[in-house]
User: What shape does this take?
Amino acid sequence: MTQQKQFNKAVGNASEINELLRRYGVKFGIYKDGVFNEQFFPFDPIPRVISAEDFQSMEKGLVQRVNALNEFLFDIYHEKKIVRDGIIPEDFIYISKGYLAECEGITPKNKVYSHISGIDLVQAKDGEWYILEDNLRIPSGASYPLIARELTRIAAPQAFSENHIVDNRGYAELLKETMEYSNCGGIRAILTPGRYNAAYFEHSYLAEHTGSVLVQNDELFVEDNILYQRTYSGSKTRIGVLYRRIADEYLDPLTFLPESLIGIPNLMEAYRSGNVGIVNAPGNGVADDKGIYYFVPKMIKYYLGEEPILKNAPTYLPFYDEDMKYVMDNLEKLVIKDVAEAGGYGVVFGSDLTKEKLEEFRKTIIAEPRRFIAQEVIDFLDLPILDNGETVMRKADLRAFVLSGEKTKVWASGLTRFSRNPDSFVVNSSQGGGFKDTWVLSR
Amino acid sequence: MKRVNFYYSTKLTFDDYVHNHSFALRIMPPETDTQHILSCSLNISPFVPTQQTVDAFGNNVTAGYMRDDHRFLDYEIKGSAEVDHTKHRLDLLPCYFYQSQYTKPDDGLRSFYDSIKGKCTGTASDKAEYFCNILSDTIEYKKGFTDTTTTAAQAFALNKGVCQDFSHILISLLRMDGIAARYIAGLAFCDGETHSWVEYWTGDHWEGIDPANNCPVSDDYLVISQGRDFRDCAIDRGVMFGKYTKQLQLVRSVLT
Amino acid sequence: MGTISIEHSDRLYWLGRYTERFFITLRSLDKLYDKMIDDKYGYREYLGYFGLTDTYTDSIDFIRSFLYDEFNPNSAAYCLERAYDNGIVLREEISTKSLSFLQMAKDTLTRSNDKANVRLSLLPLKDILYSFWGSVNEHIYDDEIRNIIYIGKTLERLDLYMRMKYPYEAVHKEYVRLCKNLRRVPKDTPYRYNTRYLSHIVEILGSEEEYLLHSDKAIESLGHLFDTSEVMA
Assistant: This one.
């Protein structure tokens, strides 16, 4: 808290750094009225600062959480002990869209399912960190703070010589190690749906910095259950690990959606045969589902026999009678989330509803108790940002990146996104949000 | 126990050259508790190297890739097996309890279930037989009204369909009733095309039932593939490139 | 990185071509600025090179269109946008650094539009492009792959020089440069020359007389240089 105050000053000049970011092409794509545009992701020069002690405990908590989630994924696609032992009701697993029966029995190399986990956290006013959600499919965003750090060090060297800030520029090396640990023999490749994808900058930037080839599906093929890249001279190069930036359903038209035009036919056969590593593993969606989120602390106890270090936002499942009673009695102060929706949709704040609407909503919840989770509204700690030269306070979250290779490691940085609108909780880049550098202090 | 000989062939013909053709076939009958494969040979023409894997549902998958131009792909299996339905299969996956893409009911099918569920009592076998009886009274076996993309709800609304549709509707009803059920594609006494039927979980093993013929499954049924619904059992799936506009498929199957 | 996909090899080739077209367009417009100080219709000859007629109200209108109009396929802005389009998918081959020069060039060109002295404000573009080429040269490690972008660059230059009726001496130099690049391409790769069309070019550019008479045929053959199948007579 007091730490943060000391650093509430801008590092360098915002327009200078944004100019540099422009020059290095830090963009994300966005569709408006069917037309593709590239936008620059606005950078705010006041860093989010995390103290060394704070980071240490966060790090332990994140490693613990991701380890438990990886154990969970292995269990679900094999023995399903956690269901049999009654820790998680089976409905929550098998109605989840993220559960892919096609992945039953597949064991990825070294049993790593979630190689790159993006864990979203917020800090409450009392300084406590809460987990908002886990992203175990294809979390994006690491490239932005990575390049921003490179540029702020040019623009404001004194900020880095005067403070003890952990250098975050090892992310590419960390990612490379993580990919190598799941490499089944061959080159590293990053699969992008193409330059009109919102995160294309990131795909190409990470390919450049990890020394991977950036590929699209039409240059790949599976022959003898081995994944190859077709090269311009007519030869083929074996791919040992594929960091894919396309969703599970589109990965292999012969296993999943037959109409997928961005997938690789028979990729799943190569994967099942252990001839290629897929980063992150298909089927991970079952572990980052809103309904499963409630059970993550229980998973930590079940698989690791440890007390969870990081807290979930207090969450209630109307599926359980006791929780249902609490939700009915306190609906007006809770936030309700539809388990099946994503990307900020299906989120309702009880305080926004009229008396009639509340009554109506109570009935919906009683009719479909499994469809919803309810959470206490956390009083976020706002962060200062520079708005036309003035410092104003805005909502912000933190996406921490946890990489699972031989060891599970937390990247000593993260993506801090903020809302530019004073009344909004939405920090998504597509909604006009911006980002900050995240400093982890070394002492 | 019965010894059967099986034969199955498909001729895929394109009206122009295709290339970079990836395919996945599910045509090699699996070795299970109720069927022992004595011999099975697979021929593919033009020659193409293939790889075998076993998918999540226990199906044998034959995967291949043909880079060069070709205008046809023929494949056939030939073999013999011992089928014995006095034995039982036990390979249950939890997903078989839940509705899948083809079996998800709409309001029509759901209210149909609600209207008959009162009379549906007894063991899982009693219920499966009851549903089958009702289906053979309600749904007419008729070709040409449905195709491989027709869902249980659509076929039910048409009141017509073929074995695939009977299977999907029965699976949907069984799952609504909390009984695990799976789709089977295979060869049966009927000649010419592949057949489809259903297996339901009795509580401790799988039991087969043929809704299109409203009869239990005997040793005259050979399983080729199984899954949540037709999608997991498609005999061949492929992706290819070229200027072709249509493909012609000729299928022949025999079980003796 | 030892190898790239077909798509990326094409992108490299076109990145070379468009970057060079942008560069030569700028240089030509700069010369025209000078010419138009004395002759306000001095731009008409340039239009003629591309088979275009004068539909412009005046020289200012012409310059605006040929510098900034992204819908004019002969404009500097158009060429730069295409160069950027090809470059953006080659980040891991040519590096973020090289790409940043294209972004800088775009920004510099856009900004010059508001400046009182456009010609002066375009001067840094030359430096930026030389830096771009230096950076590309530095970052592509594999000679065979680097050669592809230089083939695009040299071929574009030769094509434009001939269209703009450059003197034989200048054209011949670029022709020799292209031949050197072409000889490095291994057989059975996409940028291996087509013997038939290359021999046409060799015949015409071998002597000044032939060049003056048949440069249009040489331009045509240049367009077929990478046709895969030998055409039957």
Summary: The mean pLDDT of chain A is 91. Chain A has two domains: 2-307+380-440, 314-376.
